[in-house]
Amino acid sequence: MKAFYLLLVVFLCLSCSSDLGDFDNENDQELLAYIESHNLNAQKTASGLYYVITKEGTGVKPKSNSTVTVNYKGYFTNDRLFDEGKNATFNLQNVIAGWREGLTYFNEDTEGYLLIPSKLGYGNASTNSIPGGSPLIFSIHLLKVY
């Protein structure tokens, strides 16, 4: 009987873990639908991040460990705002992977979007007002690189 319960637990764990992997495909489909519905010219990176440059800046590009100052707004794919910041300064080592990678495509004074799958955002865990597995959209103006 113990073996049966052990097998049941292992089966349930494997079933749950395979569902978590489905976020990659679901997130990509959701981000592609957002890109299409908003008529964006997005570039996809090897990690699954999409980025859009709407106004090219001329300053330096940050590295993944640079400190930056940005104005930003964070949205879900239904266009609901969940966060925003003005003149927010932080080191890219202290932010989600999607920002750490995505901002390296922006020069100072560049404006654009980062479309971030959950694996490069907050993953499968819910964080504050962000449900687990959520792809995120950020409108960003990179003001300064230090």
TrEMBL record:
Coiled coil: none annotated. Residues 65-146 form the PPIase FKBP-type domain. InterPro entries: PPIase_dom_sf (IPR046357), PPIase_FKBP_dom (IPR001179). It catalyses: [protein]-peptidylproline (omega=180) = [protein]-peptidylproline (omega=0). Residues 1-21 form the signal peptide. GO terms for molecular function: peptidyl-prolyl cis-trans isomerase activity. Its EC number is 5.2.1.8. It comes from the Bacteria. It is an enzyme of class 5 (isomerase). Keywords: Isomerase, Rotamase, Signal. Pfam families: FKBP_C. Belongs to the FKBP-type PPIase family. This is Peptidyl-prolyl cis-trans isomerase. The lineage of its organism: Bacteria, Pseudomonadati, Bacteroidota, Flavobacteriia, Flavobacteriales.
